[in-house]
Predict the 3D structure of the following.
Amino acid sequence: MAKRIDVSDLNVYYGSFKAVEGVSMTVEPRSVTAFIGPSGCGKSTFLRTLNRMHEVIPGGRVEGKVMLDDQDLYASSMDPVTVRRTVGMVFQRPNPFPTMSIYDNVAAGLRLNGVKNKKTLDGIVESSLKGANLWNEVKDRLSKPGAGLSGGQQQRLCIARAIAVQPQVLLMDEPCSALDPISTLAIEDLVNELKNEFTIVIVTHNMQQAARVSDRTAFFNLKATGEPGRLVEIGDTTRIFNNPTEQATEDYISGRFG
Amino acid sequence: MSTATDRRAPDDRAVPGDPSTPPGGRPGRDALSEMSNPHRARMIKDVVARIVMWGAFALAMVPLVWILGTVVGKGFHMLTTATWWTGNQRNINSDDFGGGARHAIEGTLQMVGFTALIAVPIGILTAVYLVEYGRGRLAKAISFTVDILSGVPSIVAALFIYAVWVTTFGLGRSGFAASLALVLLMIPVIVRSTEEMLKLVPNELREAAYALGVPKWVTVVKVVLRTAFSGIVTGVLLGIARVMGETAPLLILAPYTKNFQRDLFNGNFPTLPMMINQDRGDFALATAAERMWGAALTLIILVLLLNLIGRVIAHYGSVKK
């Protein structure tokens, strides 16, 4: 299931504005990689290039290479829609489809792509909700609207929806920033379980969270406002937090700036 | 406690009789009244604003209630006559009582339905283009055109169709020709209202769909349009209501007939606004005036019914909470 991501020398632009510069990194399969860094340093922007979601914003484009195992995500023959089926995403604010029930939300990715078989859908909905630790809470009200759940449940519903299309990689863009501590804990536990199956990349502003859930951590920063963001260093989480190579990383982690 | 206050009192009297004791200097009556002055001013402003607001509301309601009251009062008994809902106006002269409105009701519904059939798809697709796809010059040009179209007076739209349909193509005046003019009037209403509704759909929902590997057009159809559905229905009904009472295109393009006429493409065509206008020279006659009030009330009821139907549809299709 899980695949390795290899990024080499990636620049990200919005129109003529260079948002991220010269990022090279490897994201290991079946592990959690956390992106940390101050606001506006390009970590979310970079994350979105891993499933070509940045192209949704007019003028978004990249230079460089992103390889998913041996597939070039930016090859001219590669359809962004295919990329997004392989690399799923969970957003900052829970965004279940408001017109759909819990069941329909989880089934949405499959249904909208033409899967109609009721049995297949039932099975995948159940396994996805179980995979997102939500099954026990919602199994008796699958036909109720997804928007009626609590924020934490909605976010797990979105995770269930994302894993229902069976992606290789799961990108999470600050998935807990709109949630209370208990829901956050539930999501963190879930991330720990999901990494057995998926390659997970998570953007977070919360350094304790990065330390708790991730195997590897990447620190992003920008030299000055208006300059493009760049990758300062990446390594095992324990090393980044205990013994960073770069002064900037140490300053950020110890709370001296950012 | 009291000693502390007593001890401070002489200090405050250092400037005797000065009303502008600095705040905090003395925590007694002066500080309180200083606080209550702006408070009282705020209360007065609040009351004045309230009165003005309610007054404006009442003022806006006056003509509405007046018109409704007059029309219902003068026209309602026509609706209870035996032939109103079944007959037509054939062989009924100004000084004859009653007759039916069915020919005009059917005609209006048929014409408006036909208009909506053409205008709604064009309007909605244009709005989808403008919100979901349109970038750059073409989108701006279309948006500008829609703005202009929405400012076109109905008589100009009617004359334009007359120039194309009758003068250039040499085709006859008919219900269909009037429908074309109504289409021109309806499209901008639908484009604008649909556009607003599509813009209200949060971008996060589009992104959620894209992130699941859903192609853009499926996202637009199944997520964006679906989420905006009830708002779009409301807009469509407003457009229909707007067009239903439009009279200028009918005067110019669809001559009235007192008979049943279900052929939209040939000959004269009965409609409610034209029925209101039917005995226009003879409103001094009670029979003619009554018929006019009856037809007017019937038109208002049709618009009201459409709105109710729209509410029901919108209710069942709306976002579930």
In short: The first helix of chain A runs from residue 43 to 49.
